[in-house]
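Continuing the series of single-chain predictions for the mutant panel. This is the parent chain; the variants come on the following pages.
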Amino acid sequence: MSMTSGLAGPPLTALQPTALQPPEGLFSRGREIARTHPLATDTLLALVLLALSSVWLAGAGFASPKSAIVQTAIVATVAVRRFWPTWVFLLACAIAFAQWLLDFPLLGDGALLICLYTVASRESWPRAVLAAVLLEAGVFMASFKWEPAGTAPRSLLFLTATVVAALFAGLAAASGSRYLAWMDERARRLELERDQQATIAAAAERTRIARELHDIVSHSLSVVITLADAAAVVSRSDPGQEAMTDVAEAGRQALSDMRAMLGVLRTDEPPADLAPQPGIGQLSGLVERVRATGLEVDLTVEGTPFPLGAAAGLTAYRIVQEALTNTIRHAHAQRTWVTIRYDAEGVELRVADDGTGPSLVPDGPHGHGIEGMRERAALHDGTVSAGPGPGGGWVVTATLLRPGAGAAR
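Parent structure:
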């Protein structure tokens, strides 16, 4: 049995948006390893540089045990460069000065550039500039003594270019590290703020649910107490009078206890209206009120309706109400389809629109509507999903189990 008001919307499909995680690159993994194991990675770098320098030195005409020892000493500074950047750089410069006095060039002098890069990337920029000036003095001395590029001017130009490159590479790395640290801190703060906002929203939603549950149970217990009192008055001569009086007293005690417990969850706000809360049967009235705003709403009921109970009916009503409210406020939609489908398991609620607005997100920075829906549905072993529709717009789908279905499972 089905009752349709207007045109049917898109097919019923539960949409759950998924977040795509970017794959982690080799560079990111290598950077992480270098950051967490500095001694191991720098030792490996020093060994590679020493191997290349030793091959070059073996082919040079001035190879000797003394030159090999000096080259090993200057390259070894690379292994500990990140622990004491400035002191290691000064030690490397001292070894290089001893090499200049002994009068033999070495390819291992590239360790000086690595140490300068480390100072620039880890120390203050004035200290980095002073280190570059000190190294430039060594460049001047080496250029006019050994002329590695053929002539002194060309050697000076070439070696100066390497010093400037190492200096600016280190400064750029320092700037990048500060930016990444700022991004990490910002992400941490945003995550903390998001969690705080979610906690506040959940507490507010639980407060509202407690208030509505209070109204529902208060209404039901009040009816029980009234009926029990009436039965006790009418049946004065009935031996069951005492039992009915006990029923009334038990109802009063339960009502008092319930008010005391739920009162802890409520905020300091004016007493709520004790009128009966709406349920799934009042959705047609809700739809009419929404149509009055100018939004075209089609309501469809599929399957054979069955009683959900006051609490579950209120949950269904609030979910549809929240979805329609989000459509009016954010979606810029022309038409909305509300579908209620009953089956053996429970009831499925679906609200779909044709909106094109820019704010089609489940929970923006100022709202927690979808989270509130999930809180409500979870009380009845239900689920809520939200996401873009296959043909555009936004779709909210909620399922509530039939009373007793959860226990049967």
